[in-house]
Amino acid sequence: MGVKGASGISYFTPAQPVLGKFIKTNSGAEDIPILYQPFRIRDVEFPNRIGVSPMCTYSTNDFKPTDFHLMHYGAMAARGPGLMLVECTAVSEGTTVTVNDMGIWNQSLAKAHFEKIVEFAHSQNVKVGCQLGQFIRKVVQSVDETTKKSENVEVGIEAHDLSKEELKSIVKQWGQAAKLAVTVAKYDFIEIHAGKGHIANEFFSRLTNKRTDEYGGSFENRIRLLLEIVDEIRVNIGEGVPIFIRLKACDNVEHPDAWSPEETVQLSFELAKHGIDVLDIAGRGMRIGPSTDKENKVLFLQKLKQEHNGKTNLMIASSGGISTADYALELLEQGAQDIVLVGRPFLKNPNLVSFWADDLEVTLSNAVQYSWGFYPTKSHLS
């Protein structure tokens, strides 16, 4: 007898069930905990609401993922997260955060993503997305010749330095990279990084956007570039592929020109109109608000979800400080978010999904190779 092989994979590996799928509660409870309830976005089904958050690893060769990425993402994929988001990947040459970050601006890079990350994730029936970014600020080391002391400082292109022709080219770069990510690398969904230092974010705030044309000044003008990027991506990837977007809630400074939480809420409705499916609010917290950073962020997320309730289909995700199953479940039950994104706990324990299932007395589907040792079965034999 032999083990059934996964189809469409270039090497033999056992055919897997949908990993991380709810099977039963071990406590006798009838209800499925919301953390393990499946959900659908456009053409993609996700088995649970635990996602691997993008994590920088600075480990590429010539902007291509390597065997390190195969091991790093593969270890988590084999344990059944509901979704995985691969670390920030530049859409154009010269816009990575470091020289060891990933890129996806040509066929060769996109093919490496498939070979080192996506093919294995798909062999485990895990949905994987790519976070796309375009970082225009750089961190360089500055040396004071008098004191010989060095410090890291941010330098780079300001929003007002870019011509309209350059902006048109930037929009095209995002569309082309997204198309490569979906058609060549075969990612299941993508995320637009519009956080600090990335091109779209530099246009949001009057602190960084001093333009006087249609890309500066009013709220509508300052979000124009991002909406053009979103529309260009959708044209290039089709209607069935989900689009996530990562934002920060605010500039976190008290200044009349700073980007505010209220503007993020306003932007979220525009993004929903343009077909964004998931809003990913980055970071651990917000200094602006009545309580602690962490509490301020939860209050903001709850308000955001309440604002959209019954009006749009926008889902809310967030990362930062989610380290236990109980807290992850609490955030979902409180209506703070629909998906929990987890980073550092997965670095400590790639099998986090199963450990959380044990904590909540839930049985989930496991990879064939790992299930044999616990409850042998002939169901995967031909």
TrEMBL record:
Keywords: Flavoprotein, FMN, NADP, Oxidoreductase. The keyword Hydrolase does not apply. Residues 35-354 form the NADH:flavin oxidoreductase/NADH oxidase N-terminal domain. It comes from the Eukaryota. Its cofactor is FMN. Pfam families: Oxidored_FMN. InterPro entries: Aldolase_TIM, OxRdtase_FMN_N, YqjM-like. This is NADH:flavin oxidoreductase/NADH oxidase N-terminal domain-containing protein. It comes from Nakaseomyces bracarensis.
